[in-house]
Amino acid sequence: MSEATIRMYNVGFGDCFLLRLPAEDGERKVHFDCGSHSASKRPRKMSEVVGQIVEDVRDADGTPRIDVVVGTHRHQDHVSGFSDEQWAEVEVREVWMPWTEHPTDPEARRIREEQSRTAHRLAMSLQLSGDTSGLLELAENQLTNAAAMETLHHGFAGSPRRRFLPGQPEEGEDPGDELADSPLGGLGVRVLGPGRAEGVIRDMDPPVGESYLRMSGILVEGEDALSSAFGDEWVVDEAEFRKGGAFEHLSLNGNVRSRLAKIASEDQLAVAVALEKAVNGTSLVIAFAIGQAVLLFPADAQWGTWEAILSDDETRKLVGRTTFLKVGHHGSHNATPRDFVELLAERRGADGDGLAAMVSTNTLKRWPKIPKAELLEALAEVTPRVARSDQGGGKRVKGFGHWGEDYIDLTVPLG
Amino acid sequence: MSPHLIDPPLRRPLKIFALDPMRSRGAPGGLSVDIANEVGLQPGPCGERVRVVDYDGVQKRFYEPVDLDDPAILMQGGLDPTESDPRFHQQMVYAVTMRTLENFDRALGRKITFRGDKLLLVPHAFVGPNAFFEPNLKAVCFGYFPADTERPGENIPGQPIFTCLSHDIIAHEVTHALVHRMRQRFGERTNPDVLAFHEAFSDIVAIFQHFSFPSVLRDAIRKSRGNLRRRTDLVDLAAQFGHATGRGESLRTAITKPDPQLYLSTTESHARGSILVAAVFAGFFAAYQRRVEDLMRLATGGSGVLPRGELSPDLVDRLAREAAASAQSTLTMCIRAFEYLPPVDVTFGDFLRALVTADHDLQAEAGAVERNMMVDAFRERGIYATGVGSLAEAALCWPPAPDIPLMPTEFIRQQVLSDANQLDRYARATQGAAAGALSGWAKQNAEVLGLDPTEKIDPDGFHATFRVAQTGELRVEVVAQFVQDRRDDVPELRGMPLRGGATVVASADGRVRFVIAKPLDDRERVDRQLGYVRRLDAGDPAAPWAKKDEQPKLSGQMLRLLHGAARS
Fold first, then answer.
1. CB-nearest partner of B126 from A216, A273, A334
2. pLDDT per position as a tens digit, A28-43
3. Cβ-based neighbours of B227, under 8 Å, separated by 6 or more
4. Between A128 and A277, where is the model more confident?
């Protein structure tokens, strides 16, 4: 029986996966993402990780080659490593990105511009207000990551072809055919998201947009910020509003004041998390259905994409047969629907060790809920074969090879 | 001092902007509205039910409060509208709030209060294009903000815009406070309609109040030549706010095309609420048209086709009077429906049934045609009552209650005999012998009331209503709400209990007339709720980033009111 191998590089809080698939004429190398969050701990520098990848993909003739590089979405923790110069040496045949990266598609441009404008304003307003709550790091994850995106769009050796997926099939064209002429043609590759349905696109729009950022004094420098409603001549000494004052009946308790004082930071938080979710919503979701095996790489897909997958009978069946899962969004709350885990659990009886999963994650003090403990527990109920990138040197489990601080290898049977 | 006292006047005239400063430009004097004269009104203004405190949350300082009893202000019927004097801002917030409260008082046949507190109104609470009601503080906070620098609409770029100078925003937020006062569980997102209902109801009150301003109404009728479905100031909400935030139009409108698909696919609360607003408005419009048919025939020599050019001022006046009467009766009908709503987990279908029941109960024949039009307008927008097989009135009305032992209603006598103004004091659910008697009664009859006898039953509010029926008789009824909680071990609920309950409407002698229940043991309903909460949870963008032990409540997102609207 043939096998696929998956290497999960430990990049801290981020994603970096190398998949090798057997093909009739040798093997295919697919590389998913290369990024790490600026706030995260890393066992080694990103350039060292990239250096290892370059060696890992070096062919016998001395040239490093990758058939397909997948940039799932433009978050720092998925792409930052692509800014490294070592990538220029790697010969790549194709680069796949979500359709929202399409340079000229008007809807794609609108979504990108909306997201990056919101990200910039948010970052500026957080800098201005001297944020110390860690929101700034969350905001920085959203910034355009220009150098890395430049590599994905224009870099690498070998003049790779760029695909923005899923494409919009011409009339009469089977959408499943779009990758037939790619290096992965015939390997059962499927694009499961992001779709273009309204619900999915809504997930990509920072739901609060720019107007939200005008709230609560989140005003960017150069704009005429209002500093008060009225001039000093209207102000009455606060003592008059306390006990014994002329306007004692208008006194205000501390609850009201502290509530009002919190509005600005609440708004910043709401924008930051909504934007994070919006960019995650553009995640390119790829599955490989080879024989009985289904390898699923959902990136950081959010509810909108998952709902589309799970509400379609055919794709629901497909993901229900998953034998390898790259756990979404570092194991966080809303990237792996409970419904999906229940689907996987249904199969457990029939095929006890039919599933292996990898979680690329790193628990940070400021975001203790990632990865989500309940999710990991639920997965553990389904299969003991779950590896965390930040828990190298773990107990040997069937299918796993090298299990270290630096990377973890897994072999998945195909057919 | 003369020994011949003059009775204090019943009403107090005050001026407000004609809807908002932008729309008021055609009417520089603003609008004069009259509200009940509160004797002993203190500076603020601070009266019996509301307190305006002009605290600027940005600079953390207080602005000079207005004394509406100052003779200089009294003699001119209130300060003239101006954006540059905070005292006028305070006056407008007070006037519109009182007007809104009076609309509820009149429709409900009782004076609604805030359970012993005064509603706090803060006109300049923060910077930002928003306003919100904060249930925990019983406070409505208004923001101010600079108009959009690129797309300011009819405002100057960067010009300060005050949400507290918008009639619609004030009425909307105060209605949130009132809805919360009457059904505090409607702030909990147990199905997609609940918060949407909150929004819709607040918009309905704001829009129908437009019709009570004769000059605004006449102007709109003149401009639209009597067609109230044209987009005019009457049917648009928060025009200045919409323009100043770069939207290029008013924030929302009561006029949208009926499309039954929308109700199925719209989830955002404000947008979903707009479907209900449009349905109510369409029902109102049909009733108005029927009311002026004869007038139009008279005015057009029988053809019903209006001649070109300006309408006759007499016709405008008469149309305005009919429109105002129709609007008032629609608004009253909507507010009355409240007595017939379940205490938890409300849906638009429940509201439709409550509307029909409440109105049928009071004017079975006189209101039949209008009710039918309302039902039609709901149907055209895909809003049906669940579990009802037909749209016939008999089916839509809540079913008559089965035989139940008499409900204890002694407390009515106390309420009648006490100062009518203090009625609501007795609604304090947790206090007094009446609450005990009611919960004892509910416990004994739990099963017929759709309550779970094994769980605690809380009387969540009870009061008498006094209304005059079609026949002219005074009808005294008792409405009591019972609520039950159960804590299920469902993580997505994040500590919020599952709730069930019943609203019981009884006649004065305790004979139960209606039981409007949301049983806790209705497995289907509970499952639907859990499914909905799970979806909310799955889509909650804040969840992954929570701090340790922080369980942000899903319901905690409620009532930051204009936020959601800023999305569309």
1. A216
2. 999 999 999 988 888 8
3. none
4. A277
B563 pLDDT band (50/70/90 cuts)?
very low
Interatomic CA distance for residues B119 and B99, integer angstroms: 14
Of B417, B501, B447, B489, nearest in space to B185 by CA: B501
Instruction: Tell me which DSSP letter residue B25 carries.
Output: G
> How confident is residue B553, by pLDDT bands cut at 50, 70 and 90?
low
Which residues between 219 and 238 in chain A have a beta carbon less than 8 angstroms from any beta carbon of chain B?
219, 223-230, 234-236, 238
Closest-CA distance of chain A to residue B343, Å:
28
Q: Which two tokens stand for residue B383?
A: 């809003």
Q: What is the pLDDT of residues B391-402, one digit of tens each?
A: 788 889 999 998
Contact B65 A247 (CB under 8 A): yes
User: Residue B352 to residues B168, B336, B386, B456: CA-CA distances in angstroms?
Assistant: 24, 12, 10, 30
Nearest CA distance, B388 vs chain A (angstrom): 29
Bridge partners (DSSP) listed for residue B40:
none
Alpha-carbon gap: B532 to the closest alpha carbon of chain A (Å):
13
Structure token digits, residue B468: 């005059």
On chain B, the residues whose CB falls within 8 A of the CB of A369 are 543-546, 548
A173-202 burial, b at 16+ Cβ within 10 Å, e below that, comes to eeeeebbeebbbeebbbbbbbbbeeeebbe
Distance CA B535, CA B267 (A): 11
Check whether B428 has a pLDDT greater than 70: no
Interface membership of A269 toward B (CB under 8 Å): yes
Q: Are A370 and B544 in contact (CB under 8 A)?
A: yes
Question: Would an 8 Å CB–CB cutoff place B567 in contact with chain A?
Answer: yes
pLDDT band at B390 (very low <50, low <70, confident <90, very high): confident
